C-alpha cells in the first residue's frame, strides 16, 4: 500500500519507491521461487513495520504543519521519540538480526534449501536498505540537533 501511495502521490520519491520494489523482489523470490527463508524475512518486516506507525504520523503531520498548527505540535512532539525508537529498531536491533542471518547463510545452515544466489541477493538488498535507513535517521538527528 505504501508503494502504491507513493507511486500515485509522490512519484518523484525514487528512493522510497526503489526501496519498496527491492523489498518486493526479496519477498517474491522467497515465496514464489525459493519457497524458503520466510522466517528471517518476516522478522525483518516486523522490525521495519513497528516503526511505520510513528513514521507515518510524523510524516503526515510534517506535510500539514504549515497550514494546521496542531499538526506542527504533533510533528514536534513526535520527532524525538520517533528518532530514538527508529534508531534502536532499525539502527541496532535490525542490523544485529541481519548479522545473525548472514552468519546463518554463510555457514550453510540452510543447507541446499536456499540457493546461494538468493540469499546473497537478499543480503545485498537488506544491508543496503539498513544502511540507507541509518543514513536517513542520522540526517534527521542532525537536523533535529541543529534546530
What is the oligomeric state here?
Answer: single chain
Structural class: mainly alpha
Q: Major β-sheet, in short? A: none
Give unreliable regions as ranges: none
Order of helices and strands: HHHHHH
- Total helical elements: 6
- Report how far the terminal alpha carbons are from each other: 33 Å
Taken from the alpha-carbon principal axes, the silhouette is elongated
**Average pLDDT:** 94
DSSP strand content: under 5%
Helix-residue proportion:
over 70%
Number of beta strands: 0
Radius of gyration: 17 Å
Number of domains: 1
Membrane topology: Multi-pass membrane protein
InterPro entries: At5g14285-like, TLC-dom
Domain TLC: 1-147
Protein name: DNA-binding protein
Relevant terms:
147 residues, single chain, DNA binding, mainly alpha, TLC-dom, DNA-binding protein, elongated, 84% helix, 6 helices, At5g14285-like
Q: What does this 3D model show about the protein?
A:
The chain has one domain (about 1-145). α5 runs antiparallel to α6. The longest helix is centred in the middle third of the chain and has 38 residues, at about 70-105. It has six helices and no strands. The two termini are about 35 Å apart. Helices cover about 85% and strands about 0% of the residues. With about 150 residues, it is mostly helical. It is elongated, with a radius of gyration of 17 Å. It has helices at about 1-10, 15-35, 40-50, 50-65, 70-105, 115-145.
Short description:
With 147 residues, the chain is an all-alpha fold. It contains 6 helices and no strands.
